[in-house]
Structures are given as C-alpha cells and as structure tokens.
Design goal:
With about 400 residues, the protein is mainly alpha-helical. The protein has one domain. It is about 70% helix and about 0% strand. Helix 1 packs across helix 11 and helix 2 crosses helix 11. The N terminus is likely disordered.
C-alpha cells in the first residue's frame, strides 16, 4: 500500500503514464503531419519522432501534443528528483549508484538494443520497397545513429541521478541545503516561482537561440534535444530540493501554496501556453529562417509555459488526488514497466490501423486503450516473474555451494 502522505504523487504517476501512452498514440494523426511517411534513410530522420504517418488527421491532437511537449518530460524529471533524497538517505551514494545502474542503465540498454528496433520495424515497413526483416536490419545498421525511442529519457535520468549521488557523497549536507531552500519557498511562493522560471530561462533560452527549439543530436543510442539538457537538469534538482524538504510539507503539503492556488496555476498554464503557441507559430516551419525577435520571444515564453504547466498538474494532484484507487495504484506500480514496453505496441497498432477506414479520434482511442492494456499486462507479468527468477537463481547458487 502506498503511504498516505504520497498518495497524490502516486496517483499523479499513474495519470502521467496514461498521458505518455496517449501522447505517442496520437502522433500519426496530427494535422501538422506531412502527406506521406518520412523516408527511412534520409536525414533528418523525422520518423524517429513520428514512426507512422496516417492519412487521418485531427487538430485537437496537435494542441494536446504541443501542451505535453511543453511540460510532460520536465514533470517526469521533477518527480524523479522528488524521491531521490529518500533513496540516497536509505542506501548511501555507492549503493544508490549501483541501484540506478540496475534499475535505469540496464533497462536502457535492453530497450535500445531490442525493444526500439522491434518498434521501428513497423515504421520501416510503412514505406519500404522490401519490407522483410533482413532488409530492415541492413537499413537499420546503415543509419548514422541507433534510435532508442522513448528510452532516451532513461540515459539522461541515469546521468542526472549519478550527479545527485556524487553530490551527496562528496558534499555532505548539499541535499539538506537544497531542502532548506525549498522550505523558504513556502513563505514566498510567487517570488520562488519567479526565481525558478528565471533560472529555467537562463538554462533554456541561450541553447534554443544557439541551436534550435526542436533539433536533436545523436551519438549511437544516446540522443538529446539540444535546447533542453540544462532545463531538465534544473527540474530534476528542483525535485530533489522539494523532496529533501519533505513529500508532505511546504509546497507539497495538501494545504500548501500549490494546492491552495491550483486554479490560478491552471489559468496561468492555459494563458502561457497560448502565449507560447502564438510566439512559436511565428518561427514555423523553419526555426533558423524565422526573425530573431520571434525566436527570442518563443525561447522566453517556453520556460514560463513549462513551469506553469508542470506546477499546475502537481497542484491539481496535491489538491484532489488524495483518494486511493486500485486501478490507479496498479498503474502507478507498473508505470515504469509500461514506459519501457509501450512503444512497440503503440507503433505496431498504428501500423495495423493504416488501412482501416476509421477517423483519427477513433484510431487514437483504439491505440491508446489497446497499448495501455497490453503494456500493463506485460509489465505486471514481468514483475510477477522476476521474484521467481531471483528465487530460482538463489536456489541454484545454494546447490552449487553444497556441491
């Protein structure tokens, strides 16, 4: 059973994994998609982000995905940071780093090496002259990178987690100092929010102006969005600061400033999203060819829209998600497994629906519901199997020792 003090965060984790699957489920149906699939062997390899392109379109999905692109991953880094201080406190730096490798590093390797190619095979088949798996492997190995799909989040999370572990081990009291800083935000939440948004702008805007708000770079299976590495690092350590202060205290309290002002934060999120959308529209379709003033406006609007989006969702969870529900509990427990597994189900379902005469909304709902159920069942099955494998391994070790 999830402890009462973090039930809202557990429920939020369940809601987030639904949003993640929904985000990937509706990508083929965006009104902004081109008329034909992206060529598999032609740079800049847009199929990595949009594996399937369907003829059915719905503009509402564009708005949904734009909003989630603003804040979803930042919120995931923040939530990961929230639970880091408690884990470091229980295990110590070395054990924490080892645990992070087994829990994040190894799954990243498995996802990148096996799950990602299996998912992208469907993307290849959508436009290939020779759809055989052998031909796909030849084309795949000929790429200048090894796309890892949504697993990109894992290697970046492993990296920032390692930084947190090293900081905890080398600078005693560093996490407590961050917690104390978060405690002061309880008294002046508006000032704290303004300071955090300013730091986010400093972390994001210069990189967005120097490179692009959208472009990614790849080194083998390691990929990252050029404008966001420092931005995500900031959100992760903001989560550490809040978690160090306490998961049920200060800003995270059920009657704290976030929960009390959820409606104002939601209104600010909607307004800032509209502002970011208006500014960003002036930079399309080519960021580098758009006016400098438009790029600067979009780069400065992003941190505000992201912060209000992240903290409005967190505030709503703290205000309303105090109930316990078996379905949400199960989703929360299996959220990590669903994240690892869902992408293959999503892409192959989208591929299977290409020839089906249904509208974009119907297809999106079918992909979301089916992929969520299948990935949940697969995750729960793996979770049930792991203890048996560990037990069998322990018995084998004992028998060898007796011999």
């Amino acid at each position: 059973m999830v402890p009462r003090v973090i039930v809202p965060l557990s429920n939020l984790r369940a809601i987030i994994i639904i949003i993640v699957v929904a985000f990937h489920s509706v990508l083929p149906y965006l009104a902004s998609q081109p008329a034909t699939p992206f060529p598999f062997d032609v740079a800049p390899y847009r199929w990595v982000a949009f594996p399937i392109v369907d003829r059915e379109r719905f503009f509402g999905f564009d708005l949904f995905c734009a909003w989630q692109d603003l804040s979803l991953m930042s919120l995931m880094f923040l939530l990961a940071g929230l639970f880091t201080p408690a884990s470091l406190g229980r295990k110590g730096s070395l054990a924490y780093l080892i645990d992070r490798w087994w829990r994040i590093g190894l799954p990243f390797c498995l996802a990148a090496a096996i799950l990602s190619p299996l998912a992208y095979y469907a993307s290849y088949r959508a436009s290939a002259a020779d759809p055989s798996f052998e031909a796909f492997i030849r084309h795949w190995l000929g790429l200048p990178m090894w796309p890892a799909g949504p697993a990109w989040f894992l290697w970046q999370l492993l990296l920032v987690s390692a930084l947190a572990g090293l900081l905890h081990g080398s600078v005693p009291g560093a996490l407590e100092a961050l917690g104390s800083l978060a405690g002061r935000a309880n008294d002046r939440p508006i000032l704290a929010f303004a300071a955090f948004t300013t730091l986010s702008a400093i972390a994001y805007a210069p990189l967005a102006m120097a490179f692009s708000a959208w472009d990614w770079t790849f080194l083998g299976p390691f990929s990252f969005q050029l404008s966001r590495p420092l931005h995500y690092l900031l959100y992760f350590f903001a989560g550490i600061a809040l978690g160090s202060h306490g998961l049920d205290r200060g800003l995270l309290g059920s009657k704290g400033p976030l929960a009390r002002h959820w409606l104002a934060l939601l209104a600010a999120a909607l307004a800032s999203f509209a502002l970011w959308g208006a500014c960003t529209s002036l930079t399309l379709p080519d960021w580098s060819a758009s006016p400098l003033s438009a790029r600067l406006a979009a780069a400065l609007a992003f941190p505000l829209a992201c912060a209000t989006g992240v903290f409005s969702l967190l505030a709503i969870a703290l205000r309303f998600f105090h109930f316990q529900d078996r379905a949400l509990d199960s989703l929360s427990v299996n959220a990590y497994g669903i994240y690892l597994i869902h992408y293959g189900f999503v892409v192959w379902l989208q591929y299977a629906l290409l020839a089906v005469a249904l509208g974009a909304v119907a297809k999106g709902i079918i992909v979301l519901a089916t992929a969520l159920v299948l990935s949940f069942v697969a995750s729960a099955g793996v979770r049930a199997l792991l203890p048996r494998l560990r037990h069998a391994g322990s018995k084998a070790t004992m028998l060898q020792q007796r011999r």
